Amino acid sequence: MEMNIALLPGDGIGPEVIAQAVKVVKAIGQKFGHKITFKEGLVGACAIDATGDPYPDATHEICAASDAVLFGAIGDPKYDNDPKAKVRPEQGLLRMRQKLGLFANVRPTFTFPSLVHKSPLKLDRVDGVDLVFFRELTGGIYFGEPRGRNEQGTKAFDTNIYSKDEIVRLARMGFEAAQKRRKLLTCVDKANVMATSRLWRETVQELAPEYPDVKVEYEFVDAVAMRLIQWPKAYDVLITENLFGDILTDEASVISGSMGLMPSASLGSKVKLFEPIHGSYPQAAGKDIANPLGTVLSASMMFDYAFGLTEEAKLISDVVNLSLAEGIVTEDIAEGGKAYKTSEVGDWLAAKIL
Amino acid sequence: MEMNIALLPGDGIGPEVIAQAVKVVKAIGQKFGHKITFKEGLVGACAIDATGDPYPDATHEICAASDAVLFGAIGDPKYDNDPKAKVRPEQGLLRMRQKLGLFANVRPTFTFPSLVHKSPLKLDRVDGVDLVFFRELTGGIYFGEPRGRNEQGTKAFDTNIYSKDEIVRLARMGFEAAQKRRKLLTCVDKANVMATSRLWRETVQELAPEYPDVKVEYEFVDAVAMRLIQWPKAYDVLITENLFGDILTDEASVISGSMGLMPSASLGSKVKLFEPIHGSYPQAAGKDIANPLGTVLSASMMFDYAFGLTEEAKLISDVVNLSLAEGIVTEDIAEGGKAYKTSEVGDWLAAKIL
Ligand SMILES: CC(C)[C@H](C(=O)O)[C@@H](O)C(=O)O
Ligand SMILES: CC(C)[C@H](C(=O)O)[C@@H](O)C(=O)O
């Protein structure tokens, strides 16, 4: 198969982890006979520094012309504590999601037996957790208008807005995923307070009869924030709006103790995007110590979701599991054993594939 | 001292737990020579059933004329899955908060040594956790206009809105609390996305120099949702807007393993309100099995926050600790020991005070 992959390393540790995923993807290409071309683009703080724009048109063109995007991480502390900064790296991310039509962010949370003891939660709570969020990614309060300040600057406002169509397309993805999994769908909203949430709940209720094999539960976002910690094994597929999804997927990411390893996919249009859930971790940038496995597993998701190549996807996750079993890991999970460099882990994985 | 206390038992287990708090408050009154009068009002689903209104004017008059309100819980499942229900119990709660001017919800999370093993988190993460949220309670997306649907019903919208004044008054409470505690204030927002959050951050930055002894940290809501689970001991005082506060205080409530025991206070005007953080727990209603300690500890907060009577407040928390140490507890925390009835726990606490 021919594949055009856009690489957006971004900021901080982004370039280092992307470099390892590239090694792995190349090895897969070699082994399975795929013709893979990479094109790199700037995004985030590094794009602002170079062009003044966190998501330059040139980058968008590379992405739009690709079959899939591999994304590292963005963000730089110099922008975080300046609420008046005119241009922020995150704007690039948001514009990219919207312009590429990536309306669904898929975030699995699962456990690695060799790492589950690192969870802040007790073993019986997390052992075997296997849930996945479908977060709406191009609507809601992230993009709603009007937003801003009054003239005097003494009042600020944001608008949360959802159309039925936006809810339907995201919910259908959740229903379909649930059908292939444990057949439980949880619709997360705040229907006791928010008008948008009532439309979410109503829309999901209308769709439910089309998926008679899926059990649907409706739960308030505050209750989910509790139950995710109390008993995460109760969940299978969760669907929710953009802002709730932002909060809950990050909360869920710590459950398994494997945050640095968790991949994600953003879907919705021809071009699909894959990225680790961790941030740009600026303190570690350039040190060759960051854990590349979240990005490598994102590449595994890419073969599956973007190209339907499940064998390739599985081989990547198999070698990742092997690296964990054999202790070929970075310092964050080395625990007294030898700590390998980011680049060494990437080399090892690529060699194992070949 | 003379005290007029409004009692709003509400729904589900509300009446049973309030009844125990009343026993305790009466015992305190007797012991310390306070003249305490109680007046009861309807709120929530039971108020809808009786009057069609979840917060009837008669109830508001009782509250407004009182010195403090003791609140049980509201909510009934029959309203939860009907997104089109015209009147919902929660509307009563929201109207009450707004009409009474209760703009700050104070929610401590701390551990009871005898219960900390019940936490879903590992012992080293929770042992000694002591944090408190100040959640803005009468603004934000809970009340912002416009909210609703377009004519065809195919779009829904909510407005998040904050004025500088609303932020200032809440933030000052947080700063002052931090000064009396470990002197760390965390401002929780989503300033990388939301205009309201940028006003929050900017306003807190402006206030900070007035509290030079307080260290201020700014953290995104998604990061807090993670760190609260990873290392809750990192936090002291957290301030945040209404919706983020709703989600994060519930998340935090499970950390210590003592959710049924956690009290809360809502402040901001002459009349202050005190309530346990747990819900109406309809499955347990009428069975005399609900844990009354959250409500009893809310009464303790009432003596402290509403009347400045710290000795009375401390005596209540002391007898609660004694009941835990001696195993005079309801079935949710009895763990193989004898399970006492809700009413028996209340009787025991009142007797100990006298
Ligand atoms: C960086 C930020 C704008 C972004 C978001 O809120 O969506 C991030 O938190 C995420 O979840 O990808
Ligand atoms: C019942 C609901 C409207 C309420 C809220 O969201 O404020 C509750 O969750 C709370 O936190 O007191």
TrEMBL record, chains A, B:
It comes from the Bacteria. Transmembrane segments: none annotated. This is 3-isopropylmalate dehydrogenase. It comes from Algoriphagus alkaliphilus. It is found in: Cytoplasm. Binds 1 Mg(2+) or Mn(2+) ion per subunit. Its cofactor is Mg(2+); Mn(2+). Residues 4-349 form the Isopropylmalate dehydrogenase-like domain. Mg(2+) binds at residues 222, 246, 250. GO terms for molecular function: 3-isopropylmalate dehydrogenase activity; magnesium ion binding; NAD binding. It is an enzyme of class 1 (oxidoreductase). GO terms for biological process: L-leucine biosynthetic process. It catalyses: (2R,3S)-3-isopropylmalate + NAD(+) = 4-methyl-2-oxopentanoate + CO2 + NADH. Pathway: Amino-acid biosynthesis; L-leucine biosynthesis; L-leucine from 3-methyl-2-oxobutanoate: step 3/4. The keyword Metal-binding applies. Belongs to the isocitrate and isopropylmalate dehydrogenases family. LeuB type 1 subfamily. GO terms for cellular component: cytosol. PANTHER family: 3-ISOPROPYLMALATE DEHYDROGENASE. The record marks 142, 190 as: Important for catalysis. Its EC number is 1.1.1.85. The keyword Oxidoreductase applies. Keywords: Amino-acid biosynthesis, Branched-chain amino acid biosynthesis, Cytoplasm, Leucine biosynthesis, Magnesium, Manganese, Metal-binding, NAD, Oxidoreductase. Catalyzes the oxidation of 3-carboxy-2-hydroxy-4-methylpentanoate (3-isopropylmalate) to 3-carboxy-4-methyl-2-oxopentanoate. The product decarboxylates to 4-methyl-2 oxopentanoate. Substrate binds at residues 97, 107, 135, 222. Pfam families: Iso_dh. Homodimer.
